[in-house]
Design goal:
Elements (H helix, E strand, L loop, with lengths): L29 E5 L8 H6 L4 H8 L1 E8 L3 E8 L6 E6 L5 E4 L7 E11 L5 E7 L5 E11 L2 H8 L15 E11 L4 E11 L1
Antiparallel strand pairs: 1-2, 1-10, 2-3, 3-4, 5-6, 6-7, 7-8, 8-9, 9-10
């Protein structure tokens, strides 16, 4: 697994609106294509959530993300080969808590917030999520844009030969999403997903 220094506690820290707002860098916005070779496996995370066959397959077939932001909202759309698997999340930039559809597509909602003016341990944008039964849990995501080749360099340093795969029209940077998932049972997992930009 990739280095992941912060505690996976999923705390929403109150969720009250803040006078300050999260700043979404222009370099983070746009469409991103997942690099499966450079990304950590999500197998353990899916095991903790006890995902069934259809949803598990849909997660495996995620192709990428689309990120947009305006003066009030950060919008995240998950792109999958399967058209029925649709996840779109909108986070207020003032850090207030919103109820969103659960990412595992089970009944119920997740309480979510984007932390305003608070950088994660890697210097990225931080998000908190928390959901109830069935399979209650919490988690954190950190989004950050880094120079192209960062993930491949780290894997080469670890003794794994890997090179970044660029899609047609890709720019020279990559998006890293550090995710931490904790089940109420006490099991937890951390993993990193790597994306390359596509216009």
């Amino acid at each position: 697994m990739s280095s992941f220094p912060f505690a996976c506690n999923g705390s929403l820290s109150g969720g009250a609106p803040s006078p300050s707002r999260a700043q979404v860098p222009a370099s983070m916005q746009g469409r991103w294509v997942k690099d499966k070779d450079l990304s950590d496996s999500m197998g353990e995370a899916m095991d903790i959530m006890e995902l069934g066959g259809l949803v598990r397959q849909a997660v495996k077939l995620i192709r990428g993300l689309r990120i947009e932001a305006d003066e009030d909202t950060f919008t995240l759309q998950v792109l999958s080969i399967l058209t029925w698997f649709k996840v779109t999340e909108r986070f207020p930039l003032d850090g207030s808590t919103v109820n969103l559809r659960r990412r595992d597509l089970r009944k119920g909602q997740a309480s979510c917030r984007m932390l305003p003016q608070q950088q994660g341990p890697h210097g990225g944008l931080m998000f908190n999520l928390e959901w109830g039964e069935p399979h209650a849990g919490s988690g954190e995501d950190e989004f950050m844009v880094v120079p192209l080749g960062t993930a491949a360099t780290e894997k080469q340093a670890a003794g794994k030969d890997s090179k970044p795969k660029l899609e047609h029209g890709a720019k020279e940077d990559e998006l890293h999403v550090y995710s931490c998932l904790r089940a109420r049972s006490g099991r937890s997992v951390t993993y990193r997903t790597v994306y390359h930009r596509k216009q």
